Amino acid sequence: MTQPRKAGRRLLAGGAALALALTGVIASGSAAMADPGPGQLGSPESGSLTITKYAGNPTDNANDGTEQDITGLEALGGVEFTVTQVGSLEGGVCTPIDLTTTEGWNLAQTAYATTPAAIAAPYCALTSQADTTATGTGVVAFENLDLTLYLVTETDLGDNDIIQPSSPFFVTVPLPYDNAGTPDWNYDVYAYPKNVVQEAPTKVLDGAPVGLVLGAVLPWMITSAVPVLNEGALFTSVVIADELDPRLSYLTAAPNAPVVTLTKPGVPDQVLTAGTHFTYSGSQTLTLTPLGLALLDATYFGGAITWKFSTEVTTLAPVGEGLLSNDATVSFNGQPPITTEEPTVQFGDLKALKYQAGSPTAGLAGAEFDLYDGACVTPIVGTPIDSTVSAADGTIYFAGLWVASYDDIAAVNPDAARDYCLVETKAPAGFVLPTGAAAQTTVAVKAGTTAAATWDTQIANSPTEGPDLPLTGSNGTIALTVGGVALLAVALGIVLIVRRRAAQR
User: Fold this and answer.
1) Helix axes 15-28, 102-112, angle to 10 degrees
2) pLDDT tens per residue, range 263-298
3) Going from the N-terminus, what domains does the chain have, and what CATH number goes with each?
């Protein structure tokens, strides 16, 4: 079988016209022909069609049927192609198209003009064969083909994220082509149909949360590329479904109302209007309306669609490891949805013990604390994010504190921690309120729940000092003793004097 030579004309368009020119050259016996035409002396009795399937946006460029170098392009394996021999109805009988005749080439030329390529009267289908492209190479070869007209159809997309099949096309075996300015015949035809492959959408946390405790507002953004469809194809549906963690609540009111935008380099951004360009279902599924689809068809193909929205952390129960994970799916034209990576947010709690100095088991109630984001500094700056009072058993507790966020759950660091600063603002009754740095405690909050009977930190308070009271004993006791002895001596003297006087009478 003669190998084709490189050239530069279209695979499908203009083949029949060139074939007629070649017929004229054959009739004159021109030596410019490298390969004889069908039915000519020395011509092959069969040919082949090799299909290489790869991902890419459709273009107006066409191959002339010769082998091409597609190094670096993404080959798509597992795609099924069906090659159907095309005949013509003659007297109600489907008859193979004879490419050894001018009439046969005229029929081929007319078939080329059919858009989209399909078999319809006066054409008919003869034998068909199907095969799938190989994994890694995206190649499938159909050997020992009769020399006639064929319709090539993509009949199974396999497991690829393909938005739409490549357009069906007609091809003749052999295929006339321009070989460096010389008309020639190609009996081993190569075709390179592209597929529009849906790029994986993304879902990310769009900035820092608003608030760092339970009730925090998390801003999200889903982004999906808008594919370029085959020529003449239109968008029939675009559906974006967000899968929220049940502990999150979707916000719709200003200033957290969702915003949907179409973007494309060199084109002004288009903000879409709810109810006009898209609708919501269950607040978590966005579907473009016909007006929204028309914008994609007219201007924003090859661009992107973004959906920004916010959610509120309504609960963390069950906390578990403190992970809130979400993903989203995007589907174009009814094809199976493509899932984003799983962005994840880490939350944790802070549990501290307030106790009486010297008695770790004696919890103190009534101590008041402010909580600040970040490690402690003196003097403390900023505004506290939350406040609490120690419970009857001395427990100080803050639930749902922000720890970290990740674009994908696979990147989660189980040992991640975030510093917070506890500042005591009021001591329990009868205890001393520390001042300055002594009133501050930096706590590294980890994701998840602090285990029972354990504490992230423990903070002691000392009782207040009482007043100085007078004491008995020591010098006071001596003075009293001396005074008492003196008084006894005086009393004894008085008694003796009285007795003497009584004796002298």
Assistant:
1) 160
2) 999 999 999 999 999 998 876 899 999 999 999 999
3) 15-197 (2.60.40.10), 211-340 (2.60.40.740), 345-461 (2.60.40.10)
